[in-house]
Write a structure and sequence with these properties.
118 residues, mainly alpha
C-alpha cells in the first residue's frame, strides 16, 4: 500500500504488535486460562487488520502526489499515461524521494526507464 518495494510493512508491524500484546497478556495470567474461543481468535486480528488497511488506504488516496499518480494511471491511452508520469517526474525533480516514487510507479507500467533520465 503505497510502498515502492511491494512489501506490506503495515501488516508486518501490526502482526508484531498484536503478537506482543497477546504474549504480554498470556504471560500475566498464570496458571494459563483455557484457550480463547475460535471466533475471538479470528475476530481480533481481522478487525485490527481492517482498521489498519482502511487507515493506510485513506492516507494513500489523500496524499496529493498519490492522487496525481492515480490520475496518470486512469487516463485513456498509453501515450497519455506515459506523458502524465514524465510530466510529474519533471515537476518533482527538486525532490529526489518523490521523483523516485513517481519513477517506481512509472517502471511498473513501462520498461523503458525513461522516467529516470528526466
Amino acid at each position: 500500500m503505497g510502498s515502492a518495494d511491494s512489501i506490506a510493512h503495515s501488516a508486518h508491524l501490526l502482526g508484531f504488535f498484536a503478537g506482543l500484546a497477546l504474549a504480554t497478556q498470556e504471560r500475566q495470567t498464570w496458571p494459563p486460562k483455557p484457550p480463547m474461543e475460535s471466533w475471538k481468535a479470528l475476530a481480533i486480528p481481522i478487525a485490527l487488520s481492517l482498521v489498519v488497511a482502511v487507515a493506510f488506504g485513506v492516507f494513500y488516496t489523500s496524499d496529493p502526489l498519490n492522487k496525481k499518480m492515480l490520475g496518470c494511471e486512469g487516463v485513456d491511452t498509453v501515450a497519455a499515461a506515459r506523458a502524465c508520469f514524465l510530466s510529474l517526474s519533471k515537476d518533482y525533480k527538486s525532490s529526489p524521494q518523490q521523483q523516485d516514487h513517481i519513477c517506481s510507479d512509472y517502471d511498473r507500467f513501462f520498461q523503458d526507464k525513461a522516467c529516470r533520465g528526466v
